[in-house]
Design brief:
Length: 804
């Protein structure tokens, strides 16, 4: 929001521009930018060039002798557009310029007694640095150059937080600065002539959406051009002036933060009524039928003054004249009743609309205006009448006219309760020791009617509905008095009274493991696009959609973390990264909006020799399986099984499902090349995993999964066999284990070899067989027998051959 420094000064005494920027920041109003105008300098005079000579020690510099009105000075200058007889701005030593204070200096051995200024060096808007500013030849040498640029001014670009709608105006910010700095506050003038016309007819049919509606009529007002001071102020903050009837409402909007609307009275077809856009209740209104989901609804047509044609449902609030909607309440006026240069009679609206209703309609129609922004934040209902008076006074002052009495319909008038507290309670909340007298002075800056007795009472402020209890009062005391009034010593030790959820504890362990394995953690938006859903084979109808998405890229809640991880991988690949491993731990959502804490990761590329001593290692299925097994080591009862019907985004022959207890809780494998292509990944081989932290945290092995552990030593032997290239290692290990006459406790795959030296269509698998007995150490003969039995089983089922 743009705020004009000179406009703020209408309401309170302010220091210079730079100090005011500091006060704004101290009050919690972030200054995002400053654009200074006028004479933002001092110590600059008009000088006449008497002579121009070459600098003896520099070819590109000149020695310029100038007349200052009180003597002559010599200045070193590098500009090429100077000549004898010109009048130019001369900054004397000690001059304060936008770039800093001018110091005495020697340039190539010659002392310069000042500086001839270019436009940008004086802070001129859109000024360049190509040459010295040439002034009017009639100006006398020695006169102050500041008078040529006007009074110093500045446009502050400030950021107002949603919880402070009272600051969305010049007067609101001046009121805040006055309270924080204990400055005097002056309210704008609103002098009106005696009403000579009857009050207009106004009714409110939707009091839940319109708590107050005040209307008055002005007749005989010419739509003349606004005075220069109004036009200049509006232009400075980016508002294009039109005529006084429109400019007055815009002026009040930015001055008081209260949106008004002016209708051409002669174009209103009947009395004003505030109602919902409900065709069923108003059969005379032209209507059309539209489909909304599976149901149908009647909507009212409306032509906005920006040229858009809208269809409004019954949740929208409209200003109607007779049966016809002439404005979309709190958002935009209608094209048919807008004020033009030929307008002489107007109906002026000042209203209070429910913030939630304006917000819903503005979001649904994607129509956001200066007016809707303020109504959505919450305007001061008590300020409606004064805002109307202020606009009328500007109009009458500029173009005359007769006014009516105000018709004020106020069905939503409520009195907010006063806040009761004691100074001791405020000090207890803040941990401070402020004297009661100091606290009283601070609070009276906000509310002069503060009652101080045994129990203090703070009468509610209509523009600060957020001050509702003594904790809010404590915050205001600290803010106005400075947060340094709060001691920095803690009053009590912080005690955690509840343990974190098991899924959160587990995910913290997983985060450490993955970081130690070389993964980088990422954070993605919870929202994804329809295109990304389709790339991973998710049906949009079974995913949670957003009713009013920010954009098409954020239309659905993510059902899986892999969408965001793939986007992050593509982003890095496009910037030259050829080896990456990312993970994310965050919530995923199903179509019923159930949330689940999930951990997912993606790996791609060839990992360099800094990680693998044996040289560059191409990632494969066993890497991602090893990562998943490392995570499973933190839990009980997690196992991996081949997946006959993997998700559509996984390679059908390189996928496994992760089982927690008895239920599937995740997957691992290769990202399907088609999904990788649609996500613009450069590599076709990308390895992924995903597992539910909540399911893993609850996972416990069944009774059949618990087995006693032998107290006697085990022994192991490696078995290397040749099998068909398509044989599943998991099936081979399971067969070997079950054939071991009960002596083989585990059969773990330790190596796979394919390539040179292997018969065509074959691969070598190495299994590490672990032998154990519960009653004693197994003998060599028993181990030999179990080994032979396992080999025979593999020969019979897989035609395996033992490698020597």
């Amino acid at each position: 929001m743009k705020i004009l420094y000179s406009w703020l000064k209408d309401f309170t005494a302010l220091p210079d521009i730079d100090r005011t920027a500091e006060l704004l920041a101290a009050a919690g109003i972030e200054v995002e930018g400053m654009e200074k105008t006028g004479a933002c300098f001092s110590g600059v005079i008009v000088a006449e060039i008497i002579k121009v000579d070459r600098h003896p020690n520099a070819d590109r510099l000149s020695l310029v002798e100038v007349e200052t009105g009180s003597g002559r000075k010599t200045v070193v200058c590098g500009a090429k557009n100077i000549a004898q007889g010109q009048k130019v701005p001369l900054a004397l030593v000690g001059a304060k310029l936008p770039g800093g204070e001018l110091k005495k200096s020697k340039i190539r051995g010659i002392e310069s007694e000042g500086m001839l200024c270019a436009p940008d060096e004086l802070g001129a808007k859109n000024g360049g640095h190509e040459g010295i500013l040439i002034l009017d030849s009639a100006l006398p040498p020695g006169c102050d150059a500041a008078r040529l640029f006007g009074e110093p001014d500045c446009v502050f670009d400030v950021k107002i937080l949603p919880n402070r709608p009272d600051l969305l105006s010049h007067y609101g910010i001046a009121r805040e600065l006055a309270a924080c700095q204990d400055f005097a506050l002056k309210k704008p003038a609103a002098e009106l002539p005696q009403p000579s016309l009857a009050a207009p007819e106004v009714s409110v049919a939707a009091p839940d959406l319109c708590g107050r509606y005040a209307g008055r009529v002005i007749k005989g007002a010419r739509a003349a051009q606004s005075p220069e001071w109004i036009r200049k102020r509006l232009e400075a903050i980016g508002v294009k002036p039109r005529n006084i009837l429109v400019d007055a409402t815009n002026y009040v909007l930015h001055e008081l933060g209260y949106p008004l609307h002016a209708f051409d009275l002669n174009k209103l077809p009947g009395p004003v009524n505030v109602r919902r856009a409900n065709c069923a209740a108003n059969p005379a209104i032209p209507a059309c039928e539209i489909k909304t989901g599976s149901a149908s609804a009647l909507t009212e047509k409306f032509s906005a003054l920006d040229g858009s044609e809208l269809s409004l449902d019954g949740d929208a609030l409209v200003i109607a004249a007779g049966e016809k909607a002439v404005a979309l309440a709190g958002i935009i006026g209608g094209a048919e009743t807008m004020v033009s240069d030929g307008t002489t009679d107007i109906f002026l609206e000042a209203a209070w609309f429910a913030p939630a209703g304006i917000h819903r309609t503005a979001r649904r129609l994607n129509m956001h205006t200066d007016s809707s922004k303020r109504f959505e934040g919450g305007t001061d209902p008590e300020a409606a009448a004064f805002a109307s008076d202020r606009a009328v006074s500007l109009i009458i002052q500029c173009c005359g006219g007769a006014i009516s009495a105000m018709r004020d319909v106020y069905p939503g008038k409520t009195a907010a309760p006063d806040v009761e507290f004691t100074p001791a309670q405020i000090n207890a909340i803040l941990g401070s020791g402020l004297p009661a007298g100091r606290m009283e002075k601070l609070l009276r800056r906000l509310q002069p009617e503060l009652y101080t007795g045994a129990v203090w009472r703070f009468p509610a402020l209509s523009w600060r509905r957020d001050i509702a209890n003594r904790w809010d009062i404590a915050e205001e005391v600290a803010r106005l008095g400075g947060f340094d009034c709060i001691p920095d010593q803690p009053r009590a030790a912080m005690v955690c009274v509840s343990a974190p959820p098991a899924a959160q504890v587990l995910s913290d362990k997983w985060r450490d493991i993955l970081c130690n394995l070389g993964f980088f953690e990422t954070y993605s938006y919870d929202f994804i696009s329809g295109k990304e859903l389709a790339a991973f084979g998710f049906a949009a109808a079974r995913c949670a959609g957003i009713a009013n998405p920010i954009s098409e890229e954020m239309k659905y809640l993510r059902p899986d973390l892999l969408c965001g991880l793939a986007k992050n991988l593509a982003y890095n690949e496009n910037r030259g990264v050829r080896c990456a491993a990312f993970f994310e731990i965050a919530k995923t959502y199903d179509g019923d909006l159930r949330e689940e804490l999930t951990c997912a990761g993606i790996m791609s590329g060839s990992w360099p020799s800094e990680i693998y001593w044996g040289g560059v290692k191409k990632l494969d299925f066993y890497h991602i399986r090893g990562v998943a097994e490392k995570l499973a080591g933190c839990c009980c009862g997690i196992r991996f099984e081949p997946d006959a019907a993997p998700p559509a985004f996984l390679h059908p022959k390189l996928a496994m499902k992760i089982i927690c207890g008895a239920k599937p809780a995740g997957y691992l494998g290769q990202l399907h090349p088609q999904a990788a292509k649609e996500m613009d990944l450069k590599s076709a081989e990308n390895w992924v995993f995903s597992v539910s932290a909540e399911a893993a945290a609850k996972c416990r092995p069944g009774a059949e999964g618990l087995k006693p552990v032998s107290q006697f030593p085990s022994s192991w032997r490696d078995m290397s066999v040749l099998v068909a290239a398509g044989a599943a290692a998991g099936d081979i290990a399971k067969t070997a284990k079950s054939a071991g006459a009960g002596f083989i406790a585990d059969a773990k795959l330790t190596d796979v070899y394919e390539g040179k030296g292997m018969p065509e269509g074959k691969k070598s698998l190495t299994l590490r067989l672990t032998f154990t007995r519960m009653d004693r150490t197994p003998s060599d003969a028993e181990v030999d027998a179990a080994f032979a039995a396992a080999l025979e089983a593999l020969k019979g089922k897989f035609s395996a051959e033992l490698r020597s």
